[in-house]
Amino acid sequence: MKVNNEFKGLLPALFTAALISMLPAQPGAQVREESHGVVLLRGLPTLETAHSIAIVELDPEQENFGEILSEVTQPDMTHPLHHLYYSPAGRLYATGLDPVCSLAEIGLERDATGAPQVTGFECLDTQGQMVGEDIMWHSSNGTEYMFVTFMGGTGGDDGGTLGVFDPQTNAVVKVIEARPSQVGADKPYIMYPHGISAYQDRMIITSTVHPDLATGVGNALTVIDLNTLEPIQNIVVENEKPLGFPSSPVEVLFARPSMNENIKPAVLVNTMFGFETWKVPYDEASKTFGDPEVLYSGAANNTAVPLEFYGTDTELFISHALPGVVKRYDLAKLPDLVSSGPDIQAAPGAHHMIFFTSKSGRDLIAVQNNLLNLGNAADNDPTDVDFIAALNAHTITVHDLATGEQLGSVNFREKYSKGVDNLEGLFGSGFVHHH
Amino acid sequence: MARQRWIATAAAVVAIGTGASYVIRALPPDPTPVADFSAPFVFGRFSVPQDNPLTEEAFALGRRLFYDPALSGGNDRSCATCHIQRLAFTDGLPTAAGLNGESLEFSSMSLVNLLWGQERFFWDGRALSLEQQALLPIENPQEMAQDLEELVRELKGSRQYRRMFRQAYGEVSSENIARALATFMRMLISAGSKYDRFLRGEAVLTEQEELGRKLFMAHPDTKVSLRGGNCIDCHSQFLTSGFRDGLDGFSNNGLDKDVDLPAGLMAVTGNPAHKGFFKVPTLRNIAVTAPYMHDGRLQTLEDVMDHYNGGVVVSPTLSPLILEADNAASPPGSFVGLRLTDSEKAAIIAFLHTLTDEAFLSDARFSNPLEGEL
Fold first, then answer.
1. Mean pLDDT throughout B155-167?
2. Which residue, of B189, B221, B241, is where some domain finishes?
3. Residue A136, CB half-sphere, CA atoms under 13 Å: how many?
4. B195 — contact with chain A (CB < 8 Å)?
5. What is the complex's ipTM, to 2 decimals?
């Protein structure tokens, strides 16, 4: 399970998370700040900028399109925060790549004019779990917990943990760990977990890649029984190997009837290095998973590095970092992928996205185009790697949701000398449901 | 000669003095933005009129006006007569007491978190801003029966008010009275209840409160055996008030049959589809604001739950959200209601009690400033 040389020497941790982001559950929710995005910005070493959390205007119809409205920097962190999530209670969290801050709660407040402000962030005790990736709130035996995947886990060559936290106090309730070397052959393991999704009492996490991108790559899903909080099964999702190494399943979505009543439960998963989207059927009555099947092949369709699942009321969106497109599917037809329109042509690195309406009421999608923001060889940036550089447009492009037409683009490297690693909507509430 | 010089000097001094005081008076006021303002992010966006920003001076003036009986024609009642702090700025009466001894048509409304929620005020939504609202009770012959010009004259006669108006806005005027009262009311922010502390991760709800919270937030769905009280469909998740957009924050929650249904919002919009629509009120501090509904017809929270559970009266404008919300497949023609169990009703009531914010109800900043002066 060795990755080839192209990947050697990268900074720890990669490829962000984020699954389905269902739009506000309530029509006419009273907050009208959809066009504000919260972004995690990465300082670029040769440009001498610091990592930061910022609020940015993303409506091309606004005069201050692309402007940062509030920003808090993290000068003391070598690696930036990684991925933002709102809890059901409206608290904002971020996972982090720096061992000093693998999970954080971010403070948001309003000033006397009503303007939102980032007030700071507090790094949480993870009991040694590192390289936080995805967060999901879900119940186990009737009690709600905050589940976090840590791709580095507590360290080592085959590490990785699923952290279970008290959503009120942020305290660790349990560290679920099951290294292949610990559990023994053919026993369910957890390794490099990244994607996370759940339905009823079954949670799925993925086995993606060792954070150093050199030690190992995964090719399977791990099923967690939420009654016992133990891993009970691995499901291999691997077929073509266009890059010559394991498939690296990344984001996962447990498609389920609460998204749309026509949906029969099944797991969808994107393989970062296999370039595929897989479906694993689920039988609710017997709680068993069927044979995995490839629904979409990037090799056959000239796309690579599929990343995120996001959803609106009617469609499912999947980003493909190369060539930088967002494909769209009919939500009601899940778990099958039935196209609902032409691809949205974003930019290399197409990754996270948000949906909102413009000032004039136009439905928009904003796509963050950056796989891993490590600088650019042309700038003599020591952290650059060509493969990654080709996947970093450093932009957020904003498109008409109906037609895909690009209406605006913010280039964070040009404008702020920073990369943009993550994008989340500033709804000012917990209406955003990931996974 | 000497005397003349003295007179000339005195005249000059007077002239300079008057000039100076004229200059001081003409200087635009430079009020201080409210210090340490903080509002929970989850309450959402709000906006304050650009010509009436939140300032310390306007707040102090508004607070004094709110409590000052000089605002009424008979100098015998203030806003606080009907809006009492420890009752979350309600008055404990079914409907407010009018000046002629008769009671008014409507129940006094709680004044809390008015920066958020509907941008229309009063049960029927007839006022479009707090500035517009603030002068109405003053002039209302049944409420405070005060002529505004007369009030401005009275306030101009007070040194203290002249100074306070000058610092906050400039001159004493009815517009500035309205602005100051609006500022005071905008600052009545309640965000310290157990529910708020729960949201911030600082408190844990009891099992019963937590069940009540879940029921409050859920729309029942018998197909997937999800039980719910449906409250969140109208009383929003964090504020518990109605929604802000358009007229979304008004509805008919099934109190009366068509013939008895008051006009409500229809009186303002003229639209028969709005007959019997009332402003969805905040439920913050609801445990201290009995009796309930626009006319105070329900005495207790138990009565309120009985209403939603099985006492809903059907009329053409009854909210479909209420008509549809049922925890059991009800036989056709039977009563409309949630069909929750007694313990589920009790759980929702327990949750409603977590909305009481003791710190708000006793916050000295919102108390009567005149009391100290007596």
1. 97
2. B189
3. 28
4. no
5. 0.81
